[in-house]
């Protein structure tokens, strides 16, 4: 609803202090504490009558009536209602049927399988994240490191004391400590908006304003976000405006009519998911959704949203055969109302919450998803690069003997890499529904599977774009993700599994520390090929720059299990090229094939450059080199001792140290191991 038509009340109608606007209707709709009771407001324009049923009236319809208005909002104050009161709306339809509905703008819900809403105050929490919020607003995230750890709270860790789940507060401490140790900048939560079925993972939402009660109260979730911020970790929320379930207590046929959804199933029914599609052309419905997104940023200090299934919103014929969809007013397949909604959503979030990210899961070639609305785009900050994910996984599943014929799977991305602001996702979608875990998808024997996983993750960090991995990837899970059990943490006791985790710790720190690896993630000036067509050796080499080219790193990827010795690479400047990172380090479970911490360039032209270096490209490995300004220091006795220490005692974390030349072993060659 717009600000002009939302009914006002002379008394204190909201627990919030800011004025009510269309995108903040949660400040009026729902249940709000007032003097002596609770004011209830619900939008049900086609209802004959509406009353509140609750703990306080024996769940009897007709005792606590709400009054209608010309805007379709029913409201009234119920004396004696207090925080913790369970309630629903009893809605009499025009045909005389009585529906019992949870509050669409309820702030808290009963623990499933119960479905009532719960009265709750959201203004009592004392936030302590002012420093984070100030820093967030001042950060240009497009040119800053963004490394995301995607988490399903119900199966990341479990308590082991008979309870099903950890509380938000317990999770805050455990997850913040772990994410900080790993070096991630953000966590992204699979939907924690209230949902009735555990197996939906939150993607069939019934409570667009309520954090699920599975893990505690709204205050507990506020504590979760606040604690994460105090530890320097951003919190992103997976948010689902594309569809909603048909559960009887939810939004479906809310007042006996298709209020939130389309009446025509060709517009309003999702055949893939057996869910209903929002009517984005109805002003109140689109503003309900915009208000939901705004609510999480406002009330819970969320740092951004990942919008699920954007492609299904953009196309009227999405997953439909001919005759099963209705063209738009111009005869096209584009959902013009959904486009307008997404633009309104992103305009609102970016205008009101500086530093908040909006990220689209959009799997088609729709142009301008992450371009500003004023330039004709949809206005998202970033977009998932599903093409990179599909091409990379297809390549990594191939036996290395055939990879030389498929280098285009890796190089093709250069054609479109900077058409959007991309996030490179290795998400939960890639380890479910029979796809197996990422480690299990890798080609080769056991040693090669681990090496290939390290290779793929290292290429992800070296490739332009922000980073995302789903939980369990970092410990090399063998089993496909199961939402009913926690991750296989026991795997950390095995060196190869723990080696993957150690490598990701170091990769995150190299990515954050080296401006060349993140400042140019979204601009063509941040990338350049050196070798992209070596089908003989199956090696690729490329440069990552800061946009102004003040800093550069050289990335070498050997896509076969055969070490490539004395491999010549043209480099942009003369000097000593320190090996910043080597995915084949023994500390990571590799063979230890390395470059003695780095190599001096020689004035030998190669690949269009006046200088070149000769290196060993480790088997199924990635090396990252950087020219340093004081090359002689790298060969000093102290520096060489530090290289040796890093090889013998890798806890020195040479991969992310400014003092040690590199992490690879000092061996010149090494026969690749087998399982």
Describe this protein's structure.
The chain is of the alpha/beta class and 675 residues long. It has a domain at 22-118: Immunoglobulin-like. The chain contains 15 helices and 28 strands. An 8-stranded parallel β-barrel has the order 9-10-13-16-17-18-19-20, surrounded by 4 helices. It has a 6-stranded antiparallel beta sheet with strand order 21-22-23-28-25-26. Helix 3 packs parallel to helix 4 (218-230) and helix 13 (446-462) runs parallel beside helix 14. The radius of gyration is 27 Å and the shape is elongated. Residues 1-15 and 630-675 have low confidence and may be disordered.
Q: Rough shape?
A: elongated
Radius of gyration: 27 Å
Beta-strand fraction estimate: 15-25%
Proper CATH architecture of the domain at 22-118: Sandwich
Strand order of the largest sheet: 9-10-13-16-17-18-19-20
**Portion of residues in helices?**
10-25%
CATH class division of the domain at 22-118? Mainly Beta
Number of helices: 15
Note the gap between the termini.
63 Å
CATH topology of the domain at 22-118: Immunoglobulin-like
Question: What's the rounded overall pLDDT mean?
Answer: 91
Low-pLDDT residue spans: 1-15, 630-675
Number of DSSP E strands:
28
CATH superfamily of the domain at 22-118: Immunoglobulins
Main sheet record: 8 strands, parallel, barrel
Q: Would you tell me the structural class of the helices and strands?
A: alpha/beta
Give the secondary structure arrangement, pairings included.
Blueprint: E1 30-34, E2 37-43, E3 49-54, E4 64-65, E5 73-79, E6 86-92, E7 98-101, E8 117-118, H1 130-138, E9 147-151, H2 153-156, H3 168-182, E10 186-189, E11 193-194, E12 207-211, H4 218-230, E13 234-239, H5 265-268, E14 269-270, E15 275-276, H6 283-299, E16 304-307, H7 310-314, H8 336-352, E17 357-360, E18 382-384, H9 386-397, H10 400-403, H11 408-411, E19 422-426, H12 438-441, H13 446-462, E20 466-470, H14 495-513, E21 527-534, E22 539-545, E23 552-558, E24 564-571, E25 576-582, E26 598-600, E27 611-617, E28 621-628, H15 637-648
Parallel strand pairs: 9-10, 9-20, 10-13, 13-16, 16-17, 17-18, 18-19, 19-20
Antiparallel strand pairs: 1-2, 2-5, 3-4, 3-6, 6-7, 6-8, 11-12, 14-15, 21-22, 22-23, 23-28, 24-27, 25-26, 25-28
Helix pairs in contact: 3-4, 6-8, 13-14
């Amino acid at each position: 609803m717009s600000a002009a038509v939302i009914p006002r009340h002379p008394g204190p109608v909201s627990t919030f202090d800011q004025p009510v606007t269309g995108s903040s209707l949660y400040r009026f709709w729902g249940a709000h504490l007032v003097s002596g009771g609770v004011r209830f407001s619900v939008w049900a324009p086609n209802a004959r009558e509406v009353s509140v049923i609750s703990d306080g009236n024996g769940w009897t319809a007709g005792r606590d009536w709400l009054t209608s208005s010309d805007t379709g909002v029913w409201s009234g104050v119920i004396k004696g209602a207090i925080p913790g009161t369970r309630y629903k709306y009893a809605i009499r339809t025009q045909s005389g049927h009585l529906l019992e509905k949870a509050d669409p703008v309820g702030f808290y819900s009963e623990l499933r399988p119960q479905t009532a809403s719960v009265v709750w105050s959201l203004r009592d929490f004392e936030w302590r994240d002012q420093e984070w919020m100030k820093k967030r607003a001042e950060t240009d995230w497009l040119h800053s490191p963004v490394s995301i750890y995607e988490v399903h709270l119900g199966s990341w860790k479990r308590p082991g004391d008979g309870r099903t789940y950890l509380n938000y507060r317990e999770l805050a401490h455990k997850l913040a400590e772990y994410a900080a140790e790993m070096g991630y900048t953000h966590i992204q939560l699979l939907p924690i908006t209230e949902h009735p079925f555990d197996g939906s993972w939150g993607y069939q939402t019934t409570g667009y304003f309520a954090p699920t009660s599975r893990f505690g109260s709204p205050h507990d979730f506020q504590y979760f976000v606040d604690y994460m911020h105090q530890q320097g970790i951003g919190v992103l929320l997976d948010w689902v405006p594309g569809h909603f379930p048909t559960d009887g207590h939810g939004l479906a046929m809310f007042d006996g009519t298709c209020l939130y959804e389309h009446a025509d199933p060709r517009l309003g029914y999702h055949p893939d998911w057996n869910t209903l599609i929002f009517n984005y052309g109805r002003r109140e419905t689109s503003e309900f959704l915009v208000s939901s997104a705004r609510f999480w940023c406002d009330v819970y200090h969320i740092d951004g949203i990942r919008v699920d299934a954007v492609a299904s919103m953009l196309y009227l014929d999405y997953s439909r055969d001919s005759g099963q969809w209705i063209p738009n007013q111009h005869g096209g397949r584009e959902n013009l109302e959904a486009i307008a909604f997404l633009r309104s959503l992103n305009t609102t979030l970016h205008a009101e919450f500086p530093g908040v990210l909006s990220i689209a899961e959009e799997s088609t070639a729709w142009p301008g998803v992450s371009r500003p609305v004023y330039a004709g785009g949809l206005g998202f900050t970033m977009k998932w690069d599903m093409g990179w994910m599909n091409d990379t996984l297809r390549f990594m599943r191939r036996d290395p003997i055939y990879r030389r014929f498929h280098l285009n799977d890796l190089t093709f991305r250069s054609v479109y890499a900077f058409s959007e602001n991309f996030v490179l996702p290795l998400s939960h979608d890639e380890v479910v529904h029979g796809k197996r875990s990422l480690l299990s998808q890798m080609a080769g024997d056991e040693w090669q599977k681990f090496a290939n996983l390290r290779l793929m993750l290292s290429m992800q960090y070296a490739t332009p774009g922000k980073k995302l991995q789903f939980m369990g990837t970092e410990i090399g899970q063998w089993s496909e993700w199961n939402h009913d059990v926690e991750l296989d943490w026991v795997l950390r006791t095995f060196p190869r599994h723990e080696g993957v985790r150690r490598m990701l710790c170091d990769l995150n720190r190299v990515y954050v520390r080296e401006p060349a690896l993140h400042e140019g993630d979204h601009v063509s000036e941040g990338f350049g090929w050196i070798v992209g067509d070596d089908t003989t050796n199956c090696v690729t080499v490329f440069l990552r720059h800061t946009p102004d080219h003040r800093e550069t790193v050289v990335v070498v990827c050997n896509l076969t299990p055969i070490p490539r010795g004395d491999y010549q690479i043209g480099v942009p400047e003369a000097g000593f090229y320190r090996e910043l990172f080597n995915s084949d380090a023994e500390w990571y479970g590799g063979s230890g094939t390395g470059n003695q911490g780095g190599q001096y360039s020689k004035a030998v032209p190669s690949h269009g450059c006046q200088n070149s270096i000769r290196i060993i490209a480790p088997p199924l490995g990635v090396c990252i080199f950087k020219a340093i300004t004081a090359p002689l220091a790298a060969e000093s006795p102290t520096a060489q001792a530090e290289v040796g220490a890093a090889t013998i005692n890798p806890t020195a974390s040479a991969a992310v140290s400014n003092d040690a030349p590199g992490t690879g072993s000092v061996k010149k060659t090494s026969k690749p191991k087998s399982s």
